[in-house]
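tool_call: predict_structure(chain=1)
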Amino acid sequence: MRGRYYADRPGMITLYHCRDARSFRALWALEELGLDYRLEVMPFPPRARVEGYREINPLGTVPALVTDGHLMTESAAIPHFLATRYGPSDLAVAPQEEAYGDYLNFLHMGEATLTFPQTIHLRYTRFQPGRAPGAAEDYAEWFGSRLRNAEALMGGQFACAGRFTMADISVGYAVMLALAIGLEDQVTPGMRAYFERLSGREGFRRAKERQGPGRIAE
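tool_result:
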């Protein structure tokens, strides 16, 4: 690896973040765990607006979480990493638990199934408006269909295991993003209530306060 990774003291966690972007998953997880970390809040998109950022993260995306000389860039993987590396914590579901498979499924579903179609919608409505309006509409409907399917699989107040876990951070962020980018019509009353439960948590509130005011794509 390269860049500024090794400037941090051993064991220090540094998160490179843009307000309410995917990196909010990592920020929320850090606050839920009560870990010590350094936060770098950047304008979006950092690859175009932050000089030298690609030296830290060659992808130019957020999140970029750096600890002990290692870089992580996947927003669904980071919460699980934090809960298991710095645990034990009941925010992760252990392999011996019955709900372990459900946990991993929802953990990855939040990004791969639910956030991905939203990024296409966001691209053609906010970043390149008018370029592909049909794609924006199609992916909005795609997201809504998959969110309803996710809700059917949950069957409880939380994604799995009968408790709040990092899987809820993954799925909950996808609902948060939908409500922020004009996809509120695709969010069912049940999933709105789900997000209201999650956003009432102290960890969520602290993460919002720590990142400061603003919104994605400013």
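agent: The longest helix spans residues 100-127. Proceeding to next step.
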